C-alpha cells in the first residue's frame, strides 16, 4: 500500500483508523502541488519519478532555496478534486515549494526575471543573471519605477494655488491673489484679502485674517449658519395641510434638513420650508430644521405640530370645563339652591378650524391667533337673604375663536455674589440688538418678548460702575409665562500688569482657598493695537476664572452649557472650567492677540471622567451656544510651578488669535437625557450637574415650567445632578419622592441659592433611566417625557404650606471677639413682626441688620428672610434681627426691610416704632416704596412689633397670631395721594407749575413719587407751594414725561446732558433710558447726514492722434477707463449698477477707495450722474504724454492723454 515499508504502521492508522483524515491529507497534497508549482502543477512539465524516503526532507533535495515538504502515498482522489491535473504515475513521498522565478520538481529551472515586466509606469527591464534592473522614465524613480519624481504630485500648493514642475524636484506655486508664500500658505495682506470685516495682520513672518464673531475661514469668507426664523407651533385638523418655515443666514448659503422627534425626514433640500399635506395623527410631534454649510451647522427651536383627530370642524371641545365658584355668604343660585355654582370655563388653549389656516403659509403664531373660548353663555339667577337679586353668567358651549396674543414677560433681578443689586445694568437681546434695557435701583428688570419666542440670549453689562463682569445668559421660554430669574454677575478680578515685551505666566483658579488648577503662558510681544502694530508697552490684564469646584462660580457662568455638534444636533457639555480675559494698553484701549496663549490645566485638581476628550469652546453671543475651536491634549508630567513632586495628568492647548478672548470654556461632550419635573406654571427650574465624586459642578441650566405644569429639562445621562425651583424669586419646596427607581437615588438636601438671600431645598439624584415611567428619559424620548401618566414619576415642587415658614439667613458670627457677633445677648433672640395686606399676603420679606455709631463705619451683622403666613386674611411674619447691645453698647442696630416678591410696597412703621425714631444716635438711611430703613430703639414690646425670647421657634409661634394690629406695614396697593390735595402747586427753582398728585406719584419709585406719597419730606415756600430746588426750565420735560410716558423735545434741543442730570436726580430710570436712546438716534442721524457729503474724483485716461494740420487738429481715439475715487458709500450712491468694484476686495461702506472704475467709457454720462446727485465740479486738470518713439506704431499708439476732475457735494 505504501511506497516505503517503514511507514506502514502510520499509513494503516490513517487509512483504517481515521479514514476522513486520509481524504483531508490527500486533498491538501493535491491542492498544494497544484498551487505551488510542484510536480502536480501545470507548470511542472516533467515525468521524472523519484522515490524518496519521507524523512529524506531532513536533507533538503530542493535547489535554489526551495522548501521540501514530506507527504504520504497518493490515493484515488475524491470526486471534487478529480478535475485537477495530477499524473497517474505521480507517487512521491515529498515535494518542493519553489521561491519566485524558479520552477521544476526540485526548483532547478530559472524563469526570466523580466517576465512579466516588474518595472512600472513604462519602465524598461533588463536581466542581470537571476536579477533584473529597471530603467525608469524621467518622471519616476524607485527599484520598480513606482515613485513619481514630480514634486507637484503631493499637491504642495495650498489655498487653491497651482503647482508647476521644472524637473530635478523643483516646482513653483502660482498663488491666488489673496495668498503668498512658497506654498501659498500665508495670507497676502497687500491684496486686502479679508472679507466680512476681517482684519489682515502681518506679524513676525506670519500673516492671517482676524475675523469678527460668527465669521470664519482663512479669509473670513465663511459664516457659520445662524437660525433667524424658527418654525412655530401649529395646530391642524386631520386631513388638512401645514407648512413649517425655517430661515438661516450663512456663507455659503446653508442647506436645510428636517427632523420629526429627532428622526431625519428630508435632507439637503434648498427649500427651507417643509410642507405636509393630508395630515394624520402620526404627523404629530416635535419638528426641527437644521441649517448646514461647510463651516458648521445649527438647529432651530422645536415646533410642536398637533393634529386633531376626528371629523369635527373645530379642534376646541364644545363641552365646558368645570369651574366652581363660591357665592357671597347668604346668597344661593335659584335653580340649585346652592352657594357653590359650576359656572364652567373653556381651556383657552390654541385651537384651529378646519381648512381655516392656509397650508401654504407658515404655521404658527399670528398677531391674532385663535383660542378655545366661550361661544355661548347663559344667565342664572342668584338670590340673597338681604333681598338682593342678580344674575351670574355660566358657559354653556366652547368654540374656537380669535384671542389676543400676549407677550412673554421675563422678569428678574441682577445681583453681585453678595446679593447686592446692580443699578443701571445694561441688557441686550441677541434678537433685538438695537434695543437696550436697564435694571432699576433694586436690580430688577422686566422685558417683554414676542409671543412664540422659545429661547432668548440676554447679555448683561455693568456699564455704570464697571465693577462686575459681563455675562450672557440663555433662557428657555414658554408661551404665556411670567418668569422671574436671578442673574449673578461675578466681580471683576484684580488687574494684572506686566510688560508686553516679556513672557508672562499667570496661575489661575484657587477660589475659596483651593489650589490653582490652570496656568496661562503668554509669550512676549503677543498683542496688537487696533491699527495692527505690535504693542510693547505695559499690559493691563483682567482675567477671571469660573472654578467648577465652586457652585457660586458655576451659577454665574455664561451660556447654558450646550453646543451644536458636527451634525447640527444639540449636545450637553460638562465643564472643567471657564476663562474670561481682557487685555488693554496703558490708555485702556483693548488689545488683540497675535500669538498663541498656552493653556495648562491640572487634571489632578478636577474630577474629569476617564476617557473623555476635553475641547476648547468660545461663546457665540448671537446664539448663546458654545462653539468648538480646539482640543486639549492629555499630558503626563510634573510641574515646578504648581509645586508638586509626583507625576500628574495635565490637559494642554492654545488659545489662537482668531478666537474671541472674552469667554473661553473647557468642556467635554456628554450624552443627553431628560428629567421630568412637575411644578406650578412659570416656575424656573435650575439643574446643576455634579461630577462623579460630587465635589465639582459641571453644568448649569434653567428652564421654565409651561402651562401644563410638566417640564422636561435637559440633563447629563448617568450623571449626578441637583434640581432647584423658584417662582417669582421664591424657592419652592421639593415633595418627598416615593417609589422612584433605585438607580435614580433621589434625595432632598439643603443648599444655598447663590445670589439670593435665602436657603433653598433641592433634589439630588442620578440621571439614569430605569424604565418607561421615568423620571429620566433618553435622547429621542422628549415627547414621552412630556406626557405624564397616572403611574409615571416626576420630581415635584410645590409652594410652602400655610403653616410652613421658610427660614433663609446669612451665616451667624459666633466669635465673641468679633464686632459682628450675632447673639450679643446671651440666650436671647430678637424678632420684628411684619404685617402684609393686599391681594398677595404670602410674600417674602427680608430684613438686614446693621450697626451704626457716630463717627464710626457701619457694621454688617447679617440678614434674615422669610415667607409670610396668612392669618386672619392678612400675612404675618416674624423675622430675626441682631439685638441691640444695650444702653452701654457703642453701636445701635438699624434694620433694612425689603419685599422680595410681588409688587408689594412698604406702607410704614407703626406709631410706637415711628415715634421712637428720635432715639436714633445716627439717622437711618433713606427709604422707598419697597425699602424701609429705621433704627431699633432700646425698647422691646408688642406695641412696637419687637419681641425677644430664648428659642426662635417658640417666639415666632407665640407672636405670629397675636396683636395683628402692630408691626411693620407692607401693602401691595396704597393710595398715598390721600395725604396731599388732589391738585398740587409746585415751585421748581422759581418756575411755577400746576399738576395733580396722581401725576407726581405715577412712578412711585422716583423721588417725586416718594415725596408726594408721604415717604419723603417735601418743603413749602412762603406762599405754600411745594418747593423743589432744581432747574425750573428743564422741569417742564420731567413733568411732561410723567403725564405722557413719552419724551417730547424741541427739534434743536441743546441741553440733553443737563436733562439727563435732572432725570438722574429725580431717579427716573425710564426717562434716563429714553434720553440715552434719543442721544444715540441723534448721533446716528448726524452720522448719516455727514455721510451724504463728500468728494468724488474721476480719473480719465485715453489715447489721441494729431491730424494733418498738426496741433490744431487733435483727434481723441479711445477712452481706456474712467476710474473713480472717493468714499465707497458715496460712489455706490451716485454710480449704482454702473460701478465696477471687482478690483477692491474689501469695499466697506465707510472706507475710501481708488480702485473702482465705471463699466462704460462715456464721460458725459458720468458727469450727468454726478450733476443729478447734486455734485459740483470744483477742480480739473489734464495732460498728455508720448508712449513710444517707434515709427512703426500708429499715432494712436504713440500718445495718450489724462485728466482729473474733482466733484463735491456740500
TrEMBL record:
Q: Which residues belong to any copy of the EGF-like domain?
A: 53-108, 110-146, 148-182, 185-221
Tell me where it mainly resides: membrane
Write out the coiled-coil annotation as residue ranges. Answer: none
The UniProt keywords, alphabetically, are: Cell membrane, Cell projection, Disulfide bond, EGF-like domain, Glycoprotein, Immunoglobulin domain, Membrane, Phosphoprotein, Postsynaptic cell membrane, Repeat, Signal, Synapse
Q: Which Pfam families match?
A: BTB_2, CILP, CILP_5th, EGF, H1_KCTD8_12_16, Ig_3
Q: Which residues form the signal peptide?
A: 1-23
Q: Where in the cell is it found?
A: Postsynaptic cell membrane; Presynaptic cell membrane
Cystine residue pairs: 98-107, 136-145, 211-220
A GO molecular-function descriptor: calcium ion binding
Q: In its UniProt record, which GO terms are filed under biological process?
A: protein homooligomerization
Source superkingdom? Eukaryota
Q: Does the keyword Disulfide bond apply?
A: yes
Q: Pull one GO CC term from this UniProt entry.
A: presynaptic membrane
Record-linked InterPro entries:
BTB/POZ_dom, CILP-1/2_b-sand_dom2, CILP-1/2_dom, EGF, EGF-like_Ca-bd_dom, H1_KCTD8_12_16, Ig-like_dom, Ig-like_dom_sf
PANTHER family, from UniProt? GH08630P (PTHR14499:SF136), POTASSIUM CHANNEL TETRAMERIZATION DOMAIN-CONTAINING (PTHR14499)
In its UniProt entry, what is this protein called?
A: Cartilage intermediate layer protein 2
Q: Which organism is it from?
A: Stylophora pistillata (Smooth cauliflower coral)
- According to the entry, what is the taxonomic lineage of the organism? Eukaryota, Metazoa, Cnidaria, Anthozoa, Hexacorallia
